[in-house]
Amino acid sequence: MPTAKKITEVAELTKRFQRANAAVLLHYRELKVGELSDLRRKLRPSNIEVKISKNTLLRIATANAGKTGLEKLFAGPTAVAFIYGSEPQGAKAVSDAVKALRKDNVKVTGGIIGDVGLDVAGVERLTTMKPLDEQLATLLGALQASAGQLAATLNGGIQSLAYALSAYEGKLQEQQ
């Protein structure tokens, strides 16, 4: 029979999974309380919240939030870094903070972005991505360049036709 405290915690975790843009799962064996507090303090300015909970409650919360593909990652002591800002920047901040700890037993085990579960390699790829606004700017630049090239191509054909007609008109006037 679930206790009221566990029901409340699952509801809170479910809301966090739904509200977060992404989440990174951490294995934190042998991490001292002070080191965990330092990790939380380092990540807070990046709009990242670190939460520790029992794996069973995390499984239930992810299922309630519609996030799948993480069940196998909930093994051993698990902490979740909820990213509320930019996904690539947040994942990079978590990865850098974990590396700065220099502990072999503290590592990224996976993550989630949207409704898609990520393995360690997926989280690493996420850390190397550009932020969304930069990606959109690159796409917009490519679209504008393509449109400009299309306009120049179409204009070039019409301009060549105009020159040919002008030359033909000049030739006809010379013949008269």
First-last Cα distance: 106 Å
Radius of gyration: 28 Å
Largest sheet: 5 strands, antiparallel
Overall residue-averaged pLDDT value: 82
Structural class: alpha+beta
Give your account of this protein's structure.
By secondary structure, the chain is of the alpha+beta class. It has 2 domains: 4-129, 2-Layer Sandwich (Alpha-Beta Plaits), CATH 3.30.70.1730; 131-176. It has 6 helices and 5 strands; from the N terminus they run αβαβαβαββαα. Strand 4 and strand 5 (116-118) form a beta hairpin. Helix 2 runs antiparallel to helix 4 (87-101) and helix 4 (87-101) crosses helix 5.
Explain briefly what this protein structure is.
The protein has helices spanning 4-19, 33-43, 55-65, 87-101, 120-128, 132-175, and strands spanning 22-28, 48-52, 78-83, 106-113, 116-118. It has 176 residues and is an alpha+beta fold. It folds into 2 domains: 4-129, Ribosomal protein L10, N-terminal RNA-binding domain (Alpha-Beta Plaits), CATH 3.30.70.1730; 131-176.
Write the layout of secondary structure elements.
Layout: H1 4-19, E1 22-28, H2 33-43, E2 48-52, H3 55-65, E3 78-83, H4 87-101, E4 106-113, E5 116-118, H5 120-128, H6 132-175
List keywords for this structure.
elongated; 176 residues; Alpha-Beta Plaits; 2 domains; five-stranded antiparallel beta sheet; alpha+beta
